[in-house]
From TrEMBL:
Residues 15-326 form the Enoyl reductase (ER) domain. NCBIfam families: oxido_YhdH (TIGR02823). The chain crosses the membrane at residues 123-141, 153-173. InterPro entries: Acrylyl-CoA_reductase_AcuI, ADH-like_C, ADH-like_N, ER, GroES-like_sf, NAD(P)-bd_dom_sf, Zn-ADH-like_protein. GO terms for molecular function: acryloyl-CoA reductase (NADPH) activity. Its EC number is 1.3.1.84. Keywords: Membrane, Oxidoreductase, Transmembrane, Transmembrane helix. It is an enzyme of class 1 (oxidoreductase). SUPFAM superfamilies: GroES-like, NAD(P)-binding Rossmann-fold domains. This is Acrylyl-CoA reductase AcuI.
């Protein structure tokens, strides 16, 4: 027997409720690899799946947790054997499939990535989907020409999970980093991660009035979307790129195409869920090589399975700072 956070739905009222339950291996879904989960984390999607579901969860009872890291316990796939350390993000695990808020998980071998040298399971979940996505965004900016010395790189939603890792990564890679935050009290935290400039959210959150403003940013990792993204597009340097990662501030894009046409600005879509295996391996090895572990540690907020209902509600309100690491045992 083992423990898992299970979300049940009351068919009459339609309300969901999450509680820790004792489970047996037979209840786990079909899959070719069984993992003894060590750590998981909390993302915005987890907040939705612990709570009312947000249209992501198909069937109840449900075990949320969109990412986890642990040790292979049993495998019917030649690529994995008991004792291997693995990490999983995406593939709709924790949404359509049972996820990582459990001491055991059974999944498809194709969804796993072997943990790279230099990262343990706890560090992997301090990174989690949020940090993995930040790395994908940084790689996309590099693939489109960004290099240290080009000028300040903007990170929006800087004190959140994606933002925190993006700030630390970019600074470690030698970029000048500006972080946008709506929480001025996080300024010291962001400076500690390597930001050299803090931009107040309200300065940059207003609707576009002029389609082009002063050419300011050499690149941008955007976790916010909405009015802020539209505004940032008009502030990019000639030929610079924005990695569009999130929608913490809205799914709209109330701007103009002028920055694309007159400044050759690139808007790069970043998806972590269906990312092909090769690029996943590349991103995880870049994380192990380039993300300073002391900076990662500074982002960690430790938690247990029992903390998850509250943390899920907090992240939906934008009140989680940095990266929550859930010790499921
Ligand atoms: P967090 O909640 O940890 O961070 C989001 C941050 O955005 C907040 O901390 C806050 O930063 C800022 N923010 C929140 N609300 C607003 C608002 N109304 N206006 C402006 N800024 C706001 O979430 P994550 O970092 O985990 O995820 C960020 C986004 O990226 C989410 O939308 C998430 O769904 C998405 N995402 C997408 C992925 C993909 O594959 N494309 C993968 C992972 C996440 P501050 O307090 O500093 O202002």
């Amino acid at each position: 027997m083992f423990k898992a956070l299970v979300v049940n739905k009351d068919e009459e009222s339609g309300k969901t409720s999450a509680a820790i339950e004792e489970m047996s291996l037979e209840r786990l879904p079909a899959g070719d690899v069984t993992v003894a989960v060590e750590y998981s984390t909390v993302n915005y999607k987890d907040g939705l799946c612990i709570g009312p579901g947000g249209g992501l969860v198909r069937n109840y009872p449900h075990v949320p947790g969109i990412d986890f890291a642990g040790t292979v316990e049993a495998s019917q796939d030649a690529r994995y054997k008991p004792g291997d350390k693995v990490v999983l993000t995406g593939w709709r695990v924790g949404e359509a499939h049972w996820g990582g808020y459990s001491q055991k998980a059974r999944v498809n071998a194709d969804w796993l990535v072997p943990l790279p040298e230099g990262l343990d399971t706890r560090a992997a979940m301090a990174v989690g989907t949020a940090g993995f996505t930040a790395m994908l965004a940084v790689m996309a900016l590099e693939d489109h020409g960004l290099k240290p010395g080009d000028g300040p790189v903007l990170v929006t939603g800087a004190a959140g999970g994606v933002g925190s890792v993006a700030v630390a990564l970019l600074a470690a890679l030698g970029h000048e980093v500006a972080g946008v935050t709506g929480r001025p009290e996080t300024a010291d935290y962001l400076t500690g991660l390597g930001a050299t400039q803090i931009v107040a959210r309200e300065e940059i959150n207003e609707t576009v009035k002029r389609p082009l403003e002063a050419e300011t940013w050499a690149g941008c990792v955007d976790a916010v979307g909405g009015a802020m993204l539209a505004r940032v597009l008009g502030q990019m340097k000639y030929g610079a790129s924005v990695g569009a990662v999130g929608l913490a501030g809205g799914a709209g894009l109330p701007g103009t195409v002028i920055p694309f046409l007159l400044r050759g600005v690139n808007l790069l879509g970043i998806d972590s869920v269906m990312q092909p295996y090769g690029n996943r391996v590349r991103a995880w090895s870049r994380i192990a090589a380039d993300l300073p572990m002391d900076k990662l540690e500074a982002m960690v907020v430790p938690a247990t399975l029992g903390d998850l209902p509250k943390l899920g509600a907090d992240i939906l309100k934008g009140q989680v700072k940095g990266r929550v690491v859930v010790d499921v045992n």
